[in-house]
Amino acid sequence: MDRLVIYHNPVCRQSRGVEEILRERGVDCEVIRYLDNPLTREDFERILALLPDEPADLVRKDKRFEELGLNEADYQTPEQVIEVLLAHPELMQRPIVIRGDRAVVARPSEKVLDLLD
To answer: What pLDDT does residue 104 have?
Structure first.
C-alpha cells in the first residue's frame, strides 16, 4: 500500500479525526502541517490534479474568507484557487489525504477510509 500523506491543521477537528482513524487502524502516514510548512504552487497543482472535486472546493468559504472580502466567483479555476491559497493558506479545505494517485478532502473524517480499500 502507498504511504498516506495528510495535509494537516492540528486545530481542525476533522484533521484530528483522520489522525485518530489511521492510528486506530495502525496505518503509517506522513503528516504535513501545511501552515507551518507552506505548500508551493507545485504542491497545489498536484493536489488539484488528484482531487476528484472542483478546484473551488479546495477553498474554505468561511468567516476568514468573508473577513478578507473575497468573492467566491473569483476562485473557480485551478490558477485562481492556487493564487488565493498561496496568499492565504489558512483557507485550504482540510485535511487533504493523498495515497498514490488518489486524494480526498476528508470532511467528514471517515472519508479517509475511501483511500484504505
So the answer is: 97
Cα distance between residue 32 and residue 65, in whole Å: 23
Confirm if 51 and 95 have CB atoms less than 8 A apart. Answer: no
Which tens digits make up the pLDDT trace of 49-105?
999 999 999 999 999 999 999 999 999 999 999 999 999 999 999 999 999 999 999
Compute CA 49 distance to the chain's CA centroid, rounded to the nearest angstrom: 12
Hey, where are the domains in the chain? Answer: 4-115
- Catalytic positions, written as ranges: 12
Burial (0-12, 13-18, 19+ Cβ within 10 Å), 98: buried
Q: What is the third-level CATH fold of 4-115?
A: Glutaredoxin (3.40.30)
Predicted TM-score of the model (pTM): 0.92
